[in-house]
Every structure is written in structure tokens, then in C-alpha cells.
């Protein structure tokens, strides 16, 4: 005879616990790899999902004498 619903639920819980243990860990390494936008003036890095607006805000706030394209050459139009 097969197991009841209680046994199936217990097995599913154990299986999910094993899956979650494998995925645990720090996100820091992945975050470091995603920091691929860099200001050429001060060398500050930004995560790859940073918008053009945030890059412009950084350039205007930190480097008012420099042009935005000097800080972020990829924003040239």
C-alpha cells in the first residue's frame, strides 16, 4: 500500500528543505560581478541595472565641472 497524504507532505517538506539548503549563500559575489558601470572620473562602480538618469545625477552632483559623457562614455548620443 502507498503512503497517505501526511507521508507525501512530509516527503515534500524534506525535499524542499534540501533544495533551499543548496541555494543558500551570499549574494555578494554576484553583486560584485554585476557592478560593471564605472565613472571614469572617480572610478565609482554602479550595478548594471543603473539607469541613465542615475548616472546623470551622479555626474551632476559629484563632478559639476565635468561633462556627463566624460564620466560615462557609454551615454554618448
Shape: rod-shaped
Poorly predicted regions: none
Oligomer: single chain
Question: Helical proportion?
Answer: 40-55%
Report how far apart the termini are: 71 Å
On the 0 to 100 scale, the average pLDDT is: 85
Structural class: mainly alpha
Radius of gyration using CA atoms only = 24 Å
User: How would a crystallographer describe the biggest sheet?
Assistant: 2 strands, antiparallel
Strand order of the largest sheet: 1-2
- Can you write the helix and strand succession as a string? HHEEHH
Strand content: 5-15%
Descriptive notes:
53% of the residues lie in helices and 5% in strands. It has four helices and two strands, in the order ααββαα. With 77 residues, it is mainly alpha-helical. Strand 1 (37-38) and strand 2 form a beta hairpin. Residues 38-75 form the At2g23090-like zinc-binding domain. Residues 3-36 form the Small EDRK-rich factor-like N-terminal domain. Pfam families: SERF-like_N, zf-met2.
Write the layout of secondary structure elements.
Blueprint: H1 5-23, H2 28-34, E1 37-38, E2 45-46, H3 52-62, H4 68-71
Antiparallel strand pairs: 1-2
Amino acid at each position: 500500500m502507498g503512503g497517505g497524504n501526511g507521508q507525501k507532505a512530509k516527503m515534500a517538506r524534506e525535499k524542499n528543505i534540501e533544495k533551499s539548503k543548496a541555494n543558500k549563500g551570499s549574494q555578494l559575489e554576484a553583486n560584485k560581478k554585476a557592478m560593471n558601470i564605472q565613472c571614469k572620473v572617480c572610478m565609482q562602480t554602479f550595478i548594471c541595472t543603473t539607469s541613465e538618469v542615475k548616472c546623470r545625477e551622479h555626474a551632476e552632483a559629484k563632478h559639476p565641472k565635468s561633462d556627463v559623457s566624460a564620466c560615462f562614455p557609454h551615454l554618448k548620443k
